[in-house]
Amino acid sequence: MNEPLPRDEPGPAPTGPLSLGSPSLGSPSLGLTPLSRVRLDELLQEMLDRVGEVVASRERLRALLDAVVGIGSDLDLRSTLQRIVAAACALAGARYGALGVLAPDKTQLSDFITHGLSPENHAKIGDLPHGRGLLGLLITDPQPVRLPDITEHPRSYGFPPEHPPMHSFLGVPVRTRDQIFGNLYLAEKQGAAQFTDDDEEIVVALAAAAGVAIDNARLFALAQRRERWLSAAAEITSVLLGTVRRQEALQLIARRAREIAGAELVLVLLADPGFEDARYRIEVADGADGLVGRILSVDVDALHTGTVNLRDVADWPAPVPDGPAMAAPLAAGPPSPSGPPTVTTPAFAGSSPSAATRADLPQGVLIVAGLAGDNSDDPALLSSFAGQAALALERARAQEERELLVVLEDRERIARDLHDVVIQRLFATGMQLQGVAPHALRPEAAKRINAAVDDLDATIRDIRRSIFELRAPAGTTLRTELRDTVQAAAETLGFRPTLDVTGPIDSAVPDDVVPELLAVLREALSNTARHAQASSVRVSARAADGEVLIRVEDNGIGTDPAAARGGLINMTERARDLGGSFAITPAPTGGTILTWRVPLG
């Protein structure tokens, strides 16, 4: 090595810039050999590269921090997912990015948020992937995957015809509370052949921060849904404070449930009193009005089993909405100890009914079908809302019963006044006229007085009939069913038969006798229309002296009792089964009299 210059002997003045590798003319060599100067240049260049890497890493960390702050700036879940994909593409230098959201069963993708594809590309590609092939690898094995060429992987499923070409690939799972929420997919590294280790590390870090942001967004969405359910329940409660009309309350319940759950269809089913098993009538169908009135068999045991897809239900009466379905019973009592009921499996009548009796079944079921998005927390909220809906039904029923009681009390008062005042006055007037008739000077006057007395008797009978009708149970009664049956026979007879009803036939005739009695009357009128050739028919129904009697008299051509055929034999057997009798006799003026009687006991 050259010896250093003495400190007190200045060298020649430099004439150009200092160079460590190759000194200029007249410049000092600083005592370095050419080999040492080359080594020093390499060390300085390495130091500059390291400084550049540090600066680049600091910039990427700053970009990562900016991305973390950015994805958490809004609590809307959809926009949060879109910002995560965009931030991942920017950090890793990817041309395309996507976030696949796992379905509740964790076996496929339920949603796919993309970045880098235009709406035109979306339209050309068609259906988005559901998690097969290489995308499914992250579902079954949630570990980061980095590939130089996606097409060469053995799990590669291929691309649709209009899909843009993709080679380099980076996939990272996104977790929320130790649960896999979805997977972050990046493709086509810009400016390089493949993604680097640093790209993988920074995307993994972003995925961790994204999991927190997603969890916050989901909690915020849950809080909003709970607020909407509580608001709807409060709205139903406000309805309870006023006059409740059942149909209006049910329509409000269905409409609000559909709005809050974002469902395609909401059904309100009420127990059908005509069935003893778990069959329900669709009272309200928000989203498909054509379903109203249908009868469904509901598997009550399935109310506790979890969400189902209505496509699995046989004989469903209409195209079934996509997505899962929830249901909750309309029961105002305390919830089941096993948790809120959440699901039902409806099917048409004819499928195997539940073994539960009507007394053990809920008065109704609220079904929400065609759900979209994450509704894992909605069943409990729906159950609480259904409880409020059941209270609305109970209050509507109580108001209807109270209004009916007022009507019945008024009818009882009218019947009592008719019996105690009007009939007594008419009867007294008739007695007075009967006492005056023998003293009439002219036979025509006596005849007219007797005719007036007969009219008064007929009026008294009509009033008594009205009294029985006023005191009959509300709704469909045997008296009205007899009237409807006689009216229906007018079409085949060509005239309307005369109907006389006497006695407390609505309250005295047992329920098991009513269908037999009506069947006998329909058969008797049908036989008269086919065989009697009559121009008039009188039907008499009477409940008195411990028996109920149906008498059908016509003025037709008569019949031979010994030649009784199918319908007449059936009427005889119906009477015999109930301990009664059936007789066919000729009418005094021609025609036939059918008499069917059974004891009331």
Features:
Sig_transdc_His_kin_sub3_dim/P, 18% strand, elongated, disordered N terminus, 7-stranded antiparallel sheet, 5-stranded antiparallel sheet, transferase, Beta-Lactamase, phosphorelay sensor kinase activity, single chain, two-component regulatory system, 601 residues, kinase, Heat Shock Protein 90, alpha+beta
Task: Describe this entry's structure for a reader.
- InterPro entries: GAF, GAF-like_dom_sf, HATPase_C_sf, HATPase_dom, Sensor_HK_TwoCompSys, Sig_transdc_His_kin_sub3_dim/P.
- This is Histidine kinase.
- Pfam families: GAF_2, HATPase_c, HisKA_3.
- The protein folds into three domains: 160 residues, 2-Layer Sandwich (Beta-Lactamase), CATH 3.30.450; 167 residues, Beta-Lactamase, CATH 3.30.450; 123 residues, Histidine kinase-like ATPase, C-terminal domain (Heat Shock Protein 90, 2-Layer Sandwich).
- Helix content is 44%, strand content 18%.
- It is built from twelve helices and 17 strands.
- Strands 9-10-12-6-7-8-11 form a seven-stranded antiparallel sheet. Strands 2-1-5-4-3 form a five-stranded antiparallel sheet, sandwiched between helices. The protein has a five-stranded mixed sheet with strand order 13-14-15-17-16.
- The N terminus is likely disordered.
What is the compact description of this entry?
The chain is an alpha+beta fold. The chain is 44% helix and 18% strand.
